[in-house]
């Protein structure tokens, strides 16, 4: 197999290095804390750099996560604070699709402004341990660049783009934290990752999204893993490696995903991350720097 070392363009790589350097200089006072984090979390970060994905069992309080899951389910049931969605059934069943329940018309539903509308998420997104790990990974003060909450449904809608194997565009390197909002077993739409694929690509890898079989053919079956986990576990990944959330077949899947980077993600449109001013004021000085790209609602 011919491999390319660089998973994105040299332009992305240089922008990453330049912006990380600028951020380090801007927040130079954080250097001792960032260094201490890199020492404290060396083992986990070494595994993350090697495999591209790690599971951290029992990372968050289980009750907090289950409660967030119930809150999100209630919001979806009531149609409150939901992100815009696409009716995917229209293509297959035509105008009749309007008679179907929402869960049969869309692949998934997202919550609008998760940090504003589900306040307990703020604690998780700015959790001290998470910020230390992200600092250790980037060796600078990280930036929270994106947060989403999604419920993916068991239905007849074909797999969506994020349910195929892909690499995240938007920056050279993303430290992505995935938190299931309930236990996820086989068939329950687990997150899948191709271990080591953040370090090793193949010609034309970027021209399309890939199937599981294609990933196995290139990387080997032992490298294509599903993350089954309990509510409270965290999965941390470098999303420059191939990944995707499997379409659930036995039960719907709820997830919270937070991206940390060294600069705002670029090259595509996404809604700005928003947070209540009062929540922002309660953050530690370090966390407030992590929040420097967030708008106050
Ligand atoms: O839903 C998932 O498990 C994966 C989502 C994803 O690809 C992403 O957030 O970049
Ligand atoms: Fe992705």
What's the arrangement of secondary structure elements?
Layout: H1 10-26, H2 31-40, H3 42-51, E1 53-56, H4 62-78, H5 90-93, E2 108-110, H6 114-117, H7 120-125, H8 128-138, E3 143-152, E4 175-180, E5 191-194, H9 212-219, E6 224-227, E7 234-238, E8 243-245, E9 253-261, E10 274-275, H10 277-282, H11 285-290, E11 295-296
Parallel strand pairs: 10-11
Antiparallel strand pairs: 1-7, 2-3, 3-9, 4-7, 4-9, 5-6, 5-8
Helix pairs in contact: 2-8
Bound molecules: 2-oxoglutaric acid and fe (ii) ion.
How much helix, percentage-wise, in residues? Answer: 25-40%
Please mark out the parts with pLDDT under 50 across 5 or more consecutive residues, or reply none. Answer: 1-6
Strand content: 15-25%
Please name the fourth-level CATH homologous superfamily.
Answer: q2cbj1_9rhob like domain
Q: What is the number of strand segments? A: 11
Q: In short, what is this structure?
A:
The protein is of the alpha+beta class and 297 residues long. Helices cover 33% and strands 18% of the residues. The chain has eleven helices and eleven strands.
Describe the structure.
This protein is α+β, with helices and mostly antiparallel strands. The chain has one domain (10-296): q2cbj1_9rhob like domain (Jelly Rolls), CATH 2.60.120.620. Helices cover 33% and strands 18% of the residues. It has eleven helices and eleven strands. The protein has helices spanning 10-26, 31-40, 42-51, 62-78, 90-93, 114-117, 120-125, 128-138, 212-219, 277-282, 285-290, and strands spanning 53-56, 108-110, 143-152, 175-180, 191-194, 224-227, 234-238, 243-245, 253-261, 274-275, 295-296. Helix 2 crosses helix 8 (128-138). The radius of gyration is 19 Å and the shape is globular. Residues 1-6 have low confidence and may be disordered. The site of fe (ii) ion has 5 residues, from loops.
